[in-house]
Design a protein that fits this description.
The protein has about 130 residues and is α/β, with parallel strands linked by helices. The chain has two domains: about 5-35, no CATH class; about 60-130, 2-Layer Sandwich (Nucleotidyltransferase, domain 5). The chain has three helices and five strands; from the N terminus they run H-E-E-E-H-E-H-E. The chain has helices at about 15-35, 85-90, 110-120, and strands at about 60-65, 70-75, 75-80, 95-105, 125-130. The longest helix is centred in the first third of the chain and has 17 residues, at about 15-35.
Length: about 130
């Protein structure tokens, strides 16, 4: 007759169900937060067939002109008059920038050209226009 039963035997199997639950929750969190990592403002971009190649080793400077003509540098609003001083300050840091200009499709593109003129006057020559 057996005195000890197998009821008290420790379980040696690895339970992977909690691990899968945690991994799925992390996946959902990353899927939700990844689109929020864009640095610029949301504008309705014009469409194009060409693609922009961006060097990943250079810092990106995103200038946005929204539908009202308001200018933003990486989501920070700035006036066209203050833009040259701000750009000169960035140039003095000595870091190379890829400048990306996003202009809303409903804005007068004279405003976008004015921003590009200020960029060139401040010494930024690697400028790209973003389209959809």
């Amino acid at each position: 007759m057996k005195i000890h039963s197998d009821v008290y035997k420790p379980m040696s199997d690895i339970n992977v169900i909690p691990l899968v639950d945690v991994v799925l929750v992390l996946l959902i969190i990353f899927m939700i937060t990844a689109p929020m990592l864009q640095h610029g403002m949301h504008v309705d971009l014009p469409e194009s067939q060409a693609e922009l190649e961006v060097d990943d080793e250079r810092e990106q400077l995103i200038l946005t002109v929204d539908e009202h003509g308001q200018i933003f540098i990486n989501r920070n609003a700035i006036s066209l008059e203050d833009l040259p001083d701000r750009l000169e300050g960035l140039q003095q840091l000595g870091q190379a920038y890829d400048v990306i200009v996003e202009g809303d499709r409903h804005v007068d593109y004279g405003a976008v050209v004015s921003v590009m003129d200020v960029l060139q006057a401040a010494g930024f020559y690697n400028i790209g226009l973003v389209t959809q």
